[in-house]
Design goal:
three-stranded antiparallel β-sheet, alpha+beta, 3 strands, 1 helix, 65 residues
Protein backbone atom coordinates (compact mmCIF):
# COMPACT_ATOMS: atom_id res chain seq x y z
CA UNK A 1 0.00 0.00 0.00
CA UNK A 2 1.42 3.38 -1.03
CA UNK A 3 0.59 6.58 0.86
CA UNK A 4 1.62 10.15 0.12
CA UNK A 5 3.31 11.89 3.05
CA UNK A 6 2.93 15.56 3.97
CA UNK A 7 6.53 16.05 2.79
CA UNK A 8 5.46 15.08 -0.74
CA UNK A 9 7.27 11.74 -0.63
CA UNK A 10 5.59 8.35 -0.97
CA UNK A 11 5.84 5.54 1.57
CA UNK A 12 5.29 1.86 0.88
CA UNK A 13 3.58 -0.07 3.67
CA UNK A 14 2.98 -3.78 4.11
CA UNK A 15 -0.44 -4.98 2.99
CA UNK A 16 -1.03 -6.84 6.24
CA UNK A 17 -1.43 -5.25 9.66
CA UNK A 18 0.84 -6.59 12.40
CA UNK A 19 -1.60 -8.08 14.94
CA UNK A 20 0.74 -7.31 17.84
CA UNK A 21 1.20 -3.59 17.09
CA UNK A 22 -1.87 -2.90 14.95
CA UNK A 23 0.31 -1.06 12.41
CA UNK A 24 1.67 -1.76 8.95
CA UNK A 25 5.39 -2.32 8.33
CA UNK A 26 7.29 0.49 6.57
CA UNK A 27 8.82 -0.97 3.39
CA UNK A 28 10.53 2.22 2.21
CA UNK A 29 10.13 5.90 1.40
CA UNK A 30 10.48 7.18 -2.18
CA UNK A 31 10.56 10.53 -4.00
CA UNK A 32 8.05 9.50 -6.68
CA UNK A 33 5.01 7.23 -6.80
CA UNK A 34 6.57 5.39 -9.77
CA UNK A 35 9.61 4.46 -7.66
CA UNK A 36 7.33 3.21 -4.87
CA UNK A 37 5.30 1.11 -7.34
CA UNK A 38 8.48 -0.37 -8.82
CA UNK A 39 9.70 -1.36 -5.36
CA UNK A 40 6.28 -2.82 -4.50
CA UNK A 41 6.48 -5.07 -7.58
CA UNK A 42 9.98 -6.18 -6.54
CA UNK A 43 8.75 -7.00 -3.02
CA UNK A 44 5.88 -9.09 -4.42
CA UNK A 45 8.23 -10.89 -6.84
CA UNK A 46 10.69 -11.92 -4.15
CA UNK A 47 7.87 -12.85 -1.74
CA UNK A 48 6.45 -15.27 -4.33
CA UNK A 49 9.93 -16.52 -5.27
CA UNK A 50 10.51 -17.68 -1.69
CA UNK A 51 7.22 -19.59 -1.63
CA UNK A 52 7.90 -21.28 -4.97
CA UNK A 53 11.41 -22.27 -3.96
CA UNK A 54 10.35 -23.83 -0.66
CA UNK A 55 6.94 -25.11 -1.67
CA UNK A 56 5.06 -23.28 1.05
CA UNK A 57 5.25 -20.14 3.11
CA UNK A 58 4.68 -22.19 6.26
CA UNK A 59 7.81 -23.43 8.07
CA UNK A 60 8.24 -27.17 8.50
CA UNK A 61 9.20 -28.09 12.06
CA UNK A 62 8.90 -31.87 11.93
CA UNK A 63 9.58 -34.22 9.09
CA UNK A 64 7.66 -37.45 8.63
CA UNK A 65 9.91 -40.49 8.88
Amino acid sequence: MIRKLSSGQYRLYSRKVNPRTGRRRNLGTFRTRAQAQKHERAVQYFKRLGQARHGSAQPVYERAS
